[in-house]
From TrEMBL:
SMART domains: Ald_Xan_dh_C. It comes from Falsiroseomonas selenitidurans. It comes from the Bacteria. This is Xanthine dehydrogenase family protein molybdopterin-binding subunit. Keywords: Molybdenum, Oxidoreductase. The keyword Endoplasmic reticulum does not apply. Residues 30-150 form the Aldehyde oxidase/xanthine dehydrogenase a/b hammerhead domain. Gene3D superfamilies: Aldehyde oxidase/xanthine dehydrogenase, a/b hammerhead, Aldehyde oxidase/xanthine dehydrogenase, molybdopterin binding domain.
């Protein structure tokens, strides 16, 4: 029934800008969510993957006879079986080029290793049995004959002339020698600089650690491969599986996704396990399921980050930026994931500019293979890092030049009268208010009162530091995205989209957009997003672009609904189409078609029902208001802001606590402030985790030393401060909603804010830099070393 309270005196209760609670939450909080592991299909068998215990070695043989003889076993397969079946390898198709113009060298990763194993956890076989326990028992009976080889785990070490070689056709382990920028001009700028700030920085490797481990079920139904799996976009995953791996027409593949417990980039692309399941399901003519254990996730889920960077900033005598230069090694792991080279190359290039008028940029990155778990996108995917490098350089320059870091930022901000601004990175910023955001943050964070708080900390034997994280990130550009609208028989309206919610809360935000556009009752809006059969396009969720893409698609589709509705309303009201007007929020806040100059009309929901019930319609009257629409594309957007963190350090233990945190953010038009604040909180938490706690560690022979939560430290509630969130919106002009994206910005602000605060606290001892993660051990060692000098 229509909600007569839909309109309040000033604004729509469920419209854009309202903090509407997530429509997903009642289902999830009452345990009615449906994740992949919750599904049990009739006749379902279980799969267990056999993984290499060695980081590097030649496969001499795989004995499966004992495993096949185990109780309940339905089959055991090796890489030779899958190659014989004609499947293709997974590879990286990114159009990145070496500095000599040649394309990157992609690895060709088969689902199961056939010649060599290249990291601990590399899949070499799989077992399918009636039960999971039987499959696990049988997997332990698979015997591997592997001649071990030396391993290399660091990208810089992999570049050495005597380093172990992972592939015979990729000399020097180098898949990409990336270079962007005018070296001669940058060198001249550095030569003429009054001051050069230089830092050696480590962007530590991260375990993604999504709440839900990966899980999938493969079936073969009516001649089609069907994969039920948690992912970031069913349309793209279906295409990758069909075109690249299965080598079948896309019509023969269907991907279904229900609820997804987090991803942060990690679940975006195909994994070896998915082909194993689909192959076994076809061979056995029954569903086959696999769910990873957390120990397996640490090994097999793609990791994030992992770069070794020398960052340099050239400044003139007035501390104006002349050039910034990044020289890096990027660790790809043992195989190239779909987007692996992007983070340390193009995304460094785009994002190190930040919100500063830096005239010259140079980025040189060598992307190298190592005997480690493959690396892929992780929240921000190079965007937070670019900002982190710049903000750390600014703090270093300020300390060395004796100029306030706030002043340096203000002098170099792009001014409001410079928009649209053609950045040296090639981006074209459409707008912003960078200095005002900085000033508002300093006020909101009560920076003026910091000295008193520092004195109070000192009275208790603790060091206190304050750090600023100014940031601007370049989102992924919104590409083709579906905005389907379907009026259902039960009186609901379904939005069909190719983006996919894996924790963000798309249902409510998208429903707010549709309600705002044409007055569909909010409570009657549903979201369909996880069935590739329903889609004609879909860019998936990633790169902070979902609202810009799906929101624009929904708005354009809504216009088409109104266009169809005028013709239908003319029939229903016995008027000419030219006399029909549409009011998006009439009485009760709902959409209504009216005959101009009269009070005669029909509500959009009633009109949809009339069409649905009609037995015949005159020519020219649409049979339904349903629309299938594809939004084309738009330029990327530039969310920005400023975060201020305060930390306390116990110098006797090295323990660092984030005790105060403030953020002011320009995310353009905000559809749902509650969801946006939640996104910022999540990103800030992950940034704090990387800055202070998290690090993937490998032994020299490639064994994962941080393979469980006993050895890998995620931030807990007690590690998090109360987070102040303030919005300073400057609407984007590059998309119909004016939105800028917010999903990854929390990391972009928190990495530099927390680390700058820590260095500020440690400056008492003359310490000018410490790498992430600044664990208690590292901080304590740095303090002891400083005390000894």
């Amino acid at each position: 029934m229509p909600d007569t309270n839909m309109l309040d005196p000033t604004r729509l209760k469920f419209g854009i800008g309202q903090p509407v609670p997530r429509a997903e939450d009642p289902v999830l909080l009452t345990g009615r969510g449906r994740y992949t592991d919750d599904i049990a299909l009739p006749g379902q068998a279980w799969c267990v993957i056999v993984r290499s215990p060695y980081a590097h070695g030649v496969i001499r043989g795989i004995a499966t006879e004992a495993a096949r003889a185990m109780p309940g076993v339905l089959g055991v397969w090796t890489g030779a079986d899958l190659v014989a079946a004609g499947y293709g390898p997974m590879k990286c198709g990114m159009p990145l080029k070496n500095k000599d113009g040649s394309p990157l060298r992609s690895t060709q990763r088969h689902a199961l290793a056939t010649d060599k194993v290249r990291f601990v956890g590399d899949p070499v076989a799989f077992v399918v049995a009636e039960t999971r326990a039987e499959a696990k028992d049988a997997a332990e009976m698979v015997e591997l004959d592997i001649d071990m080889l030396p391993a290399v785990t660091e990208a810089s070490a992999a570049a050495a002339t005597d380093a172990p070689q992972l592939y015979g056709d990729i000399p020097g382990n180098l898949v990409l020698d990336f270079h962007q920028g005018d070296s001669a001009k940058v060198a001249a700028a550095f030569a003429s600089a009054a001051h050069v700030a230089r830092l050696s920085l480590r962007n530590n490797r991260i375990v993604v650690s999504a709440m839900e481990p990966r899980s999938a079920i493969g079936t073969f139904e009516e001649g089609r491969h069907v994969l039920r799996v948690g992912c970031q976009g069913v349309f793209g995953l279906r295409n990758q599986l069909a075109n690249e791996v299965l080598k079948v027409p896309v019509q023969q593949v269907r991907v279904l996704t229900g609820n997804v417990g987090g991803s942060f980039g990690m679940k975006a692309n195909a994994y070896p396990e998915y082909l194993c399941l689909l192959h076994a399901a076809k061979e056995l003519a029954r569903p086959v399921k696999w769910t990873d254990e957390r120990s397996g996730s640490f090994l097999s889920d793609q990791h994030g980050r992992d770069h070794e960077v020398v960052a340099e900033l050239a400044l003139d005598a007035e501390a104006k930026f002349l050039a910034v230069r990044l020289t890096s090694f990027a660790n790809m792991g043992a195989y190239l994931s779909t987007v692996a080279p992007l983070m340390g190359t193009a995304n460094f290039w785009k994002n190190v500019q930040s919100n500063y008028a830096t005239p010259l940029i140079e980025v040189a990155t060598r992307c190298l293979l190592t005997n480690t778990t493959p690396v892929s996108a992780y929240r921000g995917a190079g965007r937070p890092e670019g900002n982190y490098f710049m903000e750390r350089l600014i703090e270093a320059a300020a300390a060395e030049m004796g100029i306030s870091a706030v002043e340096i930022r203000s002098r170099n901000h792009i001014r409001t009268d410079q928009f649209p601004y053609a950045a040296a990175s090639g981006s074209r910023y459409d707008g912003g208010d960078f200095t005002a955001v900085l000033e508002e943050t300093l006020s909101a964070a009560d920076v003026a009162g910091f000295a008193a708080r520092k004195a109070e900390s000192a009275s208790q034997g603790r060091l206190r530091g304050l750090g600023i994280g100014n940031f601007l990130e370049c989102t992924a550009p919104p590409t083709k995205e579906q905005g389907g609208i379907r009026f259902e028989k039960d009186g609901t309206v379904t939005i069909i989209t190719g983006t996919l919610d894996y924790g963000q809360g798309h249902w409510s935000a998208f429903a707010q957009v549709l309600h705002q556009a044409i007055g569909i009752p909010f409570q009657q809006i549903r979201l369909l997003q996880g069935d590739s059969d329903e889609l004609v396009a879909g860019g998936g969720t990633g790169g902070s672009k979902s609202l810009m893409a799906s929101g624009a698609a929904i708005m354009e589709a809504a216009e088409l609904v109104v266009k169809k509705g005028r013709d239908a309303a003319a029939w229903a009201l016995e008027a000419a189409p030219t006399d029909i007007e549409f009011e998006a929020h009439a009485e009760g806040g709902h959409g209504r078609f009216l005959i101009a100059g009269t009070d005669r009309g029909i509500g959009i929901m009633d009109l949809a029902a009339r069409l649905r019930d009609a037995t015949s319609l005159p020519e020219g009257v649409p049979p339904t208001l349903d629309v299938t629409h594809v939004f084309d594309e738009a330029p990327q957007a530039y969310p920005n802001g400023c975060h201020v963190a305060e930390v306390e350090v116990d110098p006797e233990t090295g323990i660092v606590s984030v005790v105060r945190y403030t953020s002011v953010n320009d995310f353009g038009v905000i559809v749902n402030p509650m969801l946006v604040a939640g996104q910022a909180h999540g990103g800030i938490a992950q940034g704090i985790g990387q800055a202070l706690l998290e690090r993937v560690a490998f032994s020299d022979d490639g064994q994962l030393q941080s393979g469980s939560y006993m050895d890998y430290a995620l931030p807990r509630a007690e590690d998090m401060p109360s987070i102040g969130f303030v919005s300073h919106p400057v609407p984007a002009t590059t998309n119909p909603l004016g939105a800028k994206g917010c999903g990854e910005a929390g990391c972009a602000g928190s990495l530099p804010a927390v680390m700058n605060a820590l260095v500020d606290a440690l400056s008492t001892y003359g310490i000018r830099h410490i790498d992430m993660p600044a664990t208690p051990e590292r901080v304590w060692q740095a303090i002891q070393a400083a005390r000894a000098t």
